[in-house]
Design a protein that fits this description.
Helices cover 36% and strands 23% of the residues.
Length: 473
């Protein structure tokens, strides 16, 4: 057995396997449950990987600017996708994907995963009441460690509905990164930054952001500098964040132009729109992720295009809070890179990206009074290819191609909601609801297989979150 495992490891590229960092385990060392699923599992730097052949599936590919399907075999070698068959000497497991669509995992580009405790808690009230009388008092009462369990609950929903990566802004230091690593989620996490100066009144939060980056960074967990918004972080702090981002090689994100109060206050205080303000101080570039961008003013979309900043639209949250709809058709036509996010469950109230895709398309068809607006091809790409571009992970995430990360979801094409399979891309936008997801793989590792969550103790999560609800809501 040891010889076979070593032969398998020898066939993998040096970039994946460094000999001095490898240890191995046989199926005898695993639980009986895992032993039934795997012939050999090997461990690299504490992560379990497998060699896997996916056969009989329908594969969603991206080529020449369009999504298309193809029936072919696919291979997972360690944490990477390949179209090359295994050598005769290699040992691998086979996954039968008959009647299943194999596609890139969805990327939720803006959320607050810790907010799951407040799902359906402060609804049908105005924004001020929602924020100041609903959300913020709960956030103030919650102990820091509570966010570990509320994050785990978020991951359960994400994994079950096909999300493999997410971009998060949080307020409980140390919990999001630990929870993401434990669950095997691919995360891009930022501690919310506020204040007048990053190095004085903003220093404590900035130190927390850097500390969790240093402690929890991994091959699936990265960090983003995250000033909260222009009404909670000064232009000086925003400028300092942009400088730190360049110095440290990090992306940066913020909420922007979400509601009219923010716009009017900015116009009164600075004489320009929030977008123009951030351009003036050098915050906007192709390493900037902007959530919402609902209330665009004259010239704002041109600025977004010129700077290369990436927009994340959150149609359900923006509608539910009464903020309106971002001019996504205009952004699309201008060449702005548009991605999709759910926002947090306190304002959505789900983390279901299939729901969000459907809403995005239907809302803008209605707004434009044009049934050809916001087609399924564009929307599904926004949840995969566009998101990867915003994260500077092009050809690594959001696509199935040679050498890309093995972040895959498997959908049952015999689900009534998808059948008959007349147009699979259309079905992902207009008829899928997330329940069709059978299995989810992140970084070459199944986190859900045949509807069973493998990395999260679901009963413990339910128990802990229920206790939190009873105590703090």
């Amino acid at each position: 057995m040891e010889d076979l495992i070593w032969k398998m490891l020898q066939t993998m590229p040096d970039s994946v396997v460094a000999a001095e960092k490898i240890c191995y385990t046989s199926v005898m060392d695993l639980s009986a449950q895992n032993a039934e699923r795997n012939n050999f599992i090997f461990i690299i730097e504490g992560k379990r990987f497998m060699n896997l052949k996916i056969e009989n599936g329908t594969i969603l590919l991206f080529s020449e600017g369009a999504l298309k399907t193809e029936c072919r075999d696919l291979y997972v070698k360690g944490d990477r996708i390949s179209f090359e068959p295994f050598a005769e000497s290699e040992t691998f497991e086979t996954y039968d994907a008959k009647h299943q669509l194999v596609m890139p995992g969805l990327i939720n580009m803006h959320t607050h995963a810790y907010m799951t405790l407040m799902r359906n808690y402060a609804d049908d009230v105005d924004f001020t009441d929602w924020l100041f009388n609903g959300v913020m008092p709960v956030e103030d009462r919650l102990p820091t460690e509570a966010a570990y369990w509320t994050n785990q609950l978020a991951f359960m929903e994400m994994i079950q509905s096909g999300t493999t990566s997410y971009v998060d802004m949080h307020m409980y230091p140390g919990q999001s990164g630990k929870a993401a690593n434990d669950a095997g989620m691919r995360a891009f996490i930022g501690r919310g930054l506020v204040g007048e100066d990053l190095y004085t009144d903003g220093a404590e939060r900035f130190a927390q952001a850097i500390a969790e980056l240093e402690e929890y960074s991994s091959d699936t967990c990265e960090f983003i500098l995250s000033p909260h918004a222009i009404y909670s972080a000064s232009p000086k702090l925003m400028q300092q964040v942009a400088e730190e981002s360049k110095k440290r090689g990090l992306l940066h994100q913020t909420h922007l132009s979400e509601g009219m109060t923010e716009i009017n206050d900015c116009l009164e205080k600075y004489g320009k729109s929030p977008v123009a303000l951030l351009q003036e101080i050098g915050f906007l570039d192709d390493e900037t992720i902007l959530a919402h961008c609902v209330q665009m003013q004259e010239g704002d979309i041109d600025i977004l295009r010129e700077t290369g900043a990436h927009v994340v639209t959150n149609p359900a949250s923006n509608a539910k809070l009464g903020n309106g709809f971002a001019p996504i058709t205009e952004m699309k036509n201008a060449g702005v890179n548009v991605c999709i996010g759910t926002d947090g469950t306190a304002s959505n109230n789900t983390l279901n990206m299939f729901r969000e895709m459907g809403l995005l398309s239907l809302i803008h068809k209605g707004i434009q009074k044009d049934s050809t607006a916001m087609p399924a091809q564009y929307v599904v790409q926004a949840a995969t290819v566009h998101a990867a571009k915003a994260l500077h992970k092009e050809n690594q995430l959001g696509v199935i191609r040679e050498g890309a990360k093995a972040d895959l979801i498997f959908l049952d094409l015999r689900s009534p909601s998808l059948f008959p399979n007349n147009n699979i891309v259309s079905s992902l936008c207009y008829s899928a609801n997330g329940s069709e997801v059978v299995s989810t793989m992140i970084n070459g590792r199944f986190v859900m297989r045949k509807k069973e969550l493998l990395t999260i103790d679901t009963e413990r999560v339910y128990y802990e979150v229920e206790k939190l609800a009873e105590q703090y809501l």
